[in-house]
């Protein structure tokens, strides 16, 4: 078999593994296997690409050193991140991955423009200009998104004076520079103007978006990353980059639309910004609508001891307290007593798509117990107790009424259950910046405590009751 045939076979194998791996991530039970297959495919693609460069003798000694150093640094950073980054920090890590992907794609196109200049044909130049535009916007926007998720940039919408004019100006400048670069690929001025304008647009695009919309933003930037990578593949004539980028771009686009639908908002309205605030931690004792009924862990344990069906509803408060294992242990304890236990998971709970699923899977919660929005609401209608663990806006009954920040948003209707208990440290708002009317409902008991400590106390009291 010739070297070219071997390269083609390796790329085809990697592409098939990408497709199969992506398909397997559709279900929590097979997601880990899909992740492994995708990683294997990427490994094959990297080895094939390096072998092709070496066999073609298209690399100098310095280039070889850079290649090896880059592989060691990138692989080492990925390994350390995979082992050390907490699951609660996964959203900002995904945003950084988006930034790296978009930035790398843009750098590839910039290199082609500077190395080949006028030798680039019209199609390659146009594709390269789009690559720089999308990649630079993704890089800058993802850095800002990661900063918001990490707390280094304010989570609330940052509404700079004249932001819309500035964004429009940056967008128009980027488009004009991109067209100029497509017509005259050798223009260094056009390349610099396009890069700077695209980076500026990325910053101005994400700064006004509030924390409530971060799951959608992360998903959209992921789609941008895939599109930029596909464009880089077209510039380089690399099949595996085109396939991988197209898969990521398409899946990210579909996921973005699903996330927006889960919030009952259009993608355009989300990207317009100005919605939501950073999470607050005020200690107010009364929510809109009346007094709050406080309960102790012992009270909750007694309620659970007599329940036949229980639905646990995790939110970002569970993630922040790293209480997924305590939730799983409580669920296992209840299941051992014959109680029917399930977990109601809202699509935008947490700070990225699938955040709650990932946390619960890490704690070995049985996959069949993880219910999506509609099945969870059906189960809540039969439940004796709904135990809300740090979830705020996604359980707010105000969504059923017009005229507020969450109006029309599909929620986990926990009030369908006979009894509701909310574990939360305070009466603070969620990212939508409004009171949660659930907290003052007569059927709701508020257990004011840290999620990890509260779940542990409830489990201990339950063991004492049933001993």
UniProtKB/TrEMBL annotation:
<dbReference type="GO" id="GO:0050661">
    <property type="term" value="F:NADP binding"/>
</dbReference>
<dbReference type="GO" id="GO:0008750">
    <property type="term" value="F:proton-translocating NAD(P)+ transhydrogenase activity"/>
</dbReference>
<keyword id="KW-0521">NADP</keyword>
<keyword id="KW-0472">Membrane</keyword>
<feature type="transmembrane region" description="Helical">
    <location>
        <begin position="240"/>
        <end position="260"/>
    </location>
</feature>
<feature type="transmembrane region" description="Helical">
    <location>
        <begin position="6"/>
        <end position="25"/>
    </location>
</feature>
<protein>
    <recommendedName>
        <fullName>NAD(P) transhydrogenase subunit beta</fullName>
        <ecNumber>7.1.1.1</ecNumber>
    </recommendedName>
</protein>
<dbReference type="Pfam" id="PF02233">
    <property type="entry name" value="PNTB"/>
</dbReference>
<dbReference type="InterPro" id="IPR012136">
    <property type="entry name" value="NADH_DH_b"/>
</dbReference>
<keyword id="KW-0997">Cell inner membrane</keyword>
<keyword id="KW-0812">Transmembrane</keyword>
<keyword id="KW-0520">NAD</keyword>
<keyword id="KW-1133">Transmembrane helix</keyword>
<feature type="transmembrane region" description="Helical">
    <location>
        <begin position="93"/>
        <end position="113"/>
    </location>
</feature>
<keyword id="KW-1278">Translocase</keyword>
<comment type="function">
    <text>The transhydrogenation between NADH and NADP is coupled to respiration and ATP hydrolysis and functions as a proton pump across the membrane.</text>
</comment>
<dbReference type="InterPro" id="IPR034300">
    <property type="entry name" value="PNTB-like"/>
</dbReference>
<feature type="transmembrane region" description="Helical">
    <location>
        <begin position="165"/>
        <end position="183"/>
    </location>
</feature>
<keyword id="KW-1003">Cell membrane</keyword>
<dbReference type="GO" id="GO:0005886">
    <property type="term" value="C:plasma membrane"/>
</dbReference>
<comment type="similarity">
    <text>Belongs to the PNT beta subunit family.</text>
</comment>
<dbReference type="InterPro" id="IPR029035">
    <property type="entry name" value="DHS-like_NAD/FAD-binding_dom"/>
</dbReference>
<feature type="transmembrane region" description="Helical">
    <location>
        <begin position="60"/>
        <end position="81"/>
    </location>
</feature>
<feature type="domain" description="NADP transhydrogenase beta-like">
    <location>
        <begin position="10"/>
        <end position="460"/>
    </location>
</feature>
<feature type="transmembrane region" description="Helical">
    <location>
        <begin position="133"/>
        <end position="153"/>
    </location>
</feature>
<feature type="transmembrane region" description="Helical">
    <location>
        <begin position="37"/>
        <end position="54"/>
    </location>
</feature>
């Amino acid at each position: 078999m010739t070297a070219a045939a071997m390269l083609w076979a390796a790329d085809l194998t990697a592409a098939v593994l990408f497709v199969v791996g992506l398909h397997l991530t559709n279900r929590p039970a097979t997601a880990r296997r899909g992740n492994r297959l995708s990683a294997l495919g990427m490994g094959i693609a990297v080895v094939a690409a390096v072998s092709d460069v070496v066999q073609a003798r298209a690399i100098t000694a310095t280039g070889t050193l850079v290649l090896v150093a880059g592989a060691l640094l990138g692989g080492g950073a990925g390994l350390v991140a995979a082992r050390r980054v907490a699951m609660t920090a996964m959203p900002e890590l995904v945003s950084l991955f988006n930034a790296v992907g978009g930035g790398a794609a843009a750098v590839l196109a910039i290199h082609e423009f500077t190395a080949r200049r006028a030798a680039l044909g019209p199609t390659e130049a146009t594709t390269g200009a789009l690559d720089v535009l999308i990649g630079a916007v993704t890089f800058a926007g993802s850095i800002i998104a990661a900063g918001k998720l990490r707390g280094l940039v304010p989570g609330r919408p940052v509404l700079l004076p004249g932001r819309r004019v500035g964004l429009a100006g940056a967008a128009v400048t980027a488009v004009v520079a991109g067209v100029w670069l497509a017509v005259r690929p050798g223009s260094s001025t056009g390349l610099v103007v396009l890069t700077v304008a695209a980076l500026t647009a990325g910053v101005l695009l994400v700064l006004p978006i509030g924390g409530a919309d971060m799951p959608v933003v992360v998903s959209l930037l992921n789609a941008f990353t895939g599109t930029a990578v596909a464009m880089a593949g077209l510039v380089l004539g690399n099949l595996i980059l085109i396939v991988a980028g197209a898969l990521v771009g398409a899946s990210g686009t579909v996921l973005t639309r699903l996330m927006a639908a889960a919030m009952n908002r259009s993608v355009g309205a989300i990207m317009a910004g100005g919605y939501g605030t950073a999470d607050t931690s005020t200690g107010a004792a009364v929510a809109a609508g009346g007094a709050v009924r406080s309960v102790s862990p012992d009270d909750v344990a007694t309620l659970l001891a007599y329940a036949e069906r229980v639905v646990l509803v995790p939110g970002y408060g569970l993630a922040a307290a790293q209480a997924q294992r305590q939730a799983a242990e409580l669920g296992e304890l209840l299941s051992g007593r014959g109680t029917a236990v399930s977990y109601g998971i809202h699509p935008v709970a947490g700070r990225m798509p699938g955040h709650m699923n990932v946390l619960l899977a890490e704690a070995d919660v049985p996959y069949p117990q993880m219910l999506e929005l509609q099945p969870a609401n059906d189960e809540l209608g039969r439940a004796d107790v709904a135990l809300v663990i740090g979830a705020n806006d996604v359980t707010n009954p105000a969504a059923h009424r017009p005229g507020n920040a969450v109006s029309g948003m599909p929620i986990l209707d926990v009030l369908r259950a006979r009894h509701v208990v909310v574990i939360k440290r305070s009466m603070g708002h969620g990212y939508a910046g409004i009171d949660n009317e659930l907290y003052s409902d007569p059927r709701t008991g508020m257990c004011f405590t840290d999620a990890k400590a509260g779940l542990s106390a409830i489990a201990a009291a339950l063991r004492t009751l049933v001993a």
